[in-house]
């Protein structure tokens, strides 16, 4: 048994609205797991044999969570700020094509994870590319660092370059294989990941829903109502549905394990459906601004919906959740 004490300023959270702060505090770990935290002097007296690391006046707090981020898009941060659909075609899709090479995935994942940790982020919900090997590479690197990460292979079978398209069948087969290989292996978790309704046929969205039925403890991530041109295109592709959110609802993609990025242009009825199903929103302030998508109405909650903060790199401009929260405050 190895007991260690880290001393410094301690900040931790007892609930969503209650925190506890110790200006002269200590964090106790046993075999790498947190046991307790509190006042420095009392904990030093309780654990006299512990190894002590003094961090001076540095702040020790729980790791941050980034609920929507694209690790293959690191190199397109700060690309010319076109609107969403042009930005995808001109920057994102060409960059993601490089991830057919497993070595690109490994080196980028290693750099990405190290940058997350430098910025205090210890858990993230991450998009891979359409290539299964991009997810294998990511989970391999995350496992080596013992970080808690969620990741998924993008499902995308239309309205994208041919070199990035899979099929409904192959995306389901590849995703299931990744689930079998990685979900709940160590600290890794799998996320079913249709990019968004525009790039998935009804058959592929059906496959995504089936993956959730077959694996009820996996997660789902996608994009929703980010940009007005995107919404209009979805309405053209799915004229039989009541709206954008109804597309996902129809295919069984809503629920408490489902996180929808952006949600800038939802109406009150959409928010009620999100609330009723326990579905969650990832608020992406820097990318909403950088791509001119609009302002998310954080405090407009006619029906309560769980909202998290996300960097959305590479449309977003920083992996720092502190910077991202500061930008959210400004808008």
Characterise this structure:
This protein is α/β, with parallel strands linked by helices and about 325 residues long. The protein folds into two domains: about 60 residues, Urease, subunit C, domain 1 (Roll); about 270 residues, TIM Barrel (Alpha-Beta Barrel). Helices cover about 35% and strands about 25% of the residues. The protein contains eleven helices and 13 strands. The strands form two sheets. Strands 5, 6, 7, 8, 9, 10, 11, 12 and 13 form a nine-stranded parallel beta sheet that branches. Strand 11, helix 9 and strand 12 form a beta-alpha-beta unit. Helix 3 packs across helix 4, helix 4 packs parallel to helix 5 and helix 5 runs parallel beside helix 6. The protein is globular. The N and C termini lie far apart (about 50 Å).
Task: Describe how the helices and strands are arranged.
Elements: E1 3-13, E2 19-30, E3 33-39, H1 40-46, E4 51-60, E5 64-70, H2 84-97, H3 102-118, E6 121-127, H4 132-145, E7 148-152, E8 154-155, H5 168-182, E9 188-194, H6 202-214, E10 219-224, H7 228-237, H8 244-250, E11 258-262, H9 268-277, E12 280-283, H10 285-290, E13 306-309, H11 321-330
Parallel strand pairs: 1-4, 5-6, 6-7, 7-9, 8-9, 9-10, 10-11, 11-12, 12-13
Antiparallel strand pairs: 1-2, 2-3
Q: At the first level of CATH, what is the class of the largest domain? A: Alpha Beta
Mean pLDDT level: 95
* Class from helix and strand fractions: alpha/beta
Radius of gyration: 21 Å
The fourth-level CATH homologous superfamily of the largest domain is Metal-dependent hydrolases
Gross morphology is globular
H/E order of the elements? EEEHEEHHEHEEHEHEHHEHEHEH
The CATH topology of the largest domain corresponds to TIM Barrel
- Put simply, the count of helices is 11
> Alpha-carbon distance between the termini?
48 Å
| Percent of residues in β-strands | 25-35%
